[in-house]
Structure formats: C-alpha cells, structure tokens
Amino acid sequence: MLEDRPTPASAAPWPIAYPQGYAVVDVETTGLSRDDRIISAAVYRLDAQGEVQDHWYTLVNPERDPGPVWIHGLTTDVLEGAPLFPEIAEEFAARLDGRVLVAHNAVFDWSMIAREYARAQRTAPVRQRLCTIALSKELGLPLPNHKLESLAAHFGVVQERAHHALDDARVLAEAFRPSLRAAAAGNVRLPLLECRPLTEWTDGASGAVPRQPQSSYRGGGAGSWRPSRKRPACPYPNPGRYEPGKPLKQGMRVAFSGDTSVERELLEDRAVEAGLHVATSLSRLTSLLVTNDPDSYTSKAVKAKQFGTPVVDEAAFGQLLQDVAPAEKA
Length: 330
Known about the structure:
By secondary structure, the protein is an alpha/beta fold.
C-alpha cells in the first residue's frame, strides 16, 4: 500500500505564464554614455526553471580607449587582438534568441547591446528583459541596497572577480535561480519589460557608422555615431504641475527615472515633440515624474516624494502624450 505523503513545495505547479528560457547577461563597457562600447560580454543560458544549460564569454575590441581599466582590468593590449562586435554578433544573437534577457540593472545592459547591434546594422533577437533589481523588489528581499554583491550575499553566492563579465554573469545566474523559484512558489508577477530594437539609429545615408573618438569614462563628445541629443529650449512657459485626471499641457517639465520598456531617449523625444520640457533633474518646478518604480530610492523618486511631485508610470504617460493640451496664449 502506498503511503500518502505531502507534496513537496518544489512540486507546486509552475506558473504557465512564465518564460521558457532565460539568458543571464553581463557586459563590461568603456563607459556609461550612449557613445561607449562593449569590451566583454558573457551569457549564461538557463532553462524555464533557472537551471544552467551552458555559458559563453568573449572579449570585444572597441576600436578605442578601453575606459576605466582600474574597474574592469581590460587594457588596450589585452583587447587589441579581440574580435570586433560584428564578428561576434551572430554567436551572441544565438545565445539570446528566444530567451528573456536577465541582467542586474537590465536597462543598461540592453541599451549597450542594442546600440552595438545598431552599429553593426543588425537587430538583437531580444523581445523582453527582466531586471533582477526589479525582481528583488517584487519579492520584498531584505537587501541593504541594490548592488549585485548584496543580492549575491543574500543567497550565499560567492563573488570571485567583480566587474569581470563571466563571473558577474555566473553570480547573477546563481542568484536568479532561487529568486525565480521564490517568485514561482508565490505566483509572483515577473517584472518583464519590452525590448525594442534600435535599428532606426543606424546611419541610413551611408549605411556605415563613424569610428568612435577616444573619450573619458563618462565619455561622449564630438563624433558620436548618433546625432547630438542637445535640444533647443522648450518654447512654452511652464504652466505648473500636472493635475491627475487632466491632460498634460505644453511647457510642463517632465522628468524620467528608472527602467522603461521604450528606450529612454526615444521616450524623451516623444515628450519634446508633444511640446513638453524634458528635465534632467527634479526640482520643485517639475510638473511630473515618469517612473515604473515610484518606491525606488533614486534621487528623483526621493525628491518627488519630498516635493509632492505627481508621479505616473510609463503606460499612463504614453496615454497622456496622445492628448497634450496646447500652451496658453500670453
């Protein structure tokens, strides 16, 4: 006679809406700006329940100064013989194809990857991303901050070489697995965001992308492969704060914070086209803060709470952009 035994927690039904596979990614770069380049990349492929299937790592020659060597340890000499991004783009794409991209501060890794594919006149086969910072918040993990080392310590994962793409990807994969299982056990909604390719940023005239100039770690500067983002001043006066339930008005000062499904700069472009002023910081004059995570500890979110600045998420902002009221005539 078979003995009745309680069903173990691990046998609980897996949420059918969860993705079928993940690509845990880490990239090291020459800096933090849109003109900076990837110099190494690592991918751990995981199955639907977070088990490691394989991993891959490559150096990438950025054809420019490697940036903060004291952080990533990759010198010009080390990178000189490495493949160019177009030479590893196909293999990289194969590692990402059909999977959710998982990264710590995923908007950064996705933006860097998407820009490299745009430069190579290709499209990264990624449709969704998942940020492990956002997932840790969904799970209510008692972390002292949002650093990878804190997430790793929470799950007892040992970090061996911080800021080395392969080890950072390994650490994140090992921390993601218990996070994913905890989410599944609690039927927690995964904070998935859409990834939109940036192929519209390639140079349509010549089909080529100018070589990058050398720049500092917080680089950028003349010769950018993308047109300058410096915008003219908003022609409309600030009508004040946004009032919930009413339309936006031309001239309102709008600030953005955190991860967005639409590339941040494209979202800012839409705001400018609608006659809004895009603010790079938040003050008492800011009309509205757009963020998908109002409870985060970004400086803008904190100041919004201090100043009582209205806050809406990206989806609501998209709806508001469809019907922006004209500026009042002087």
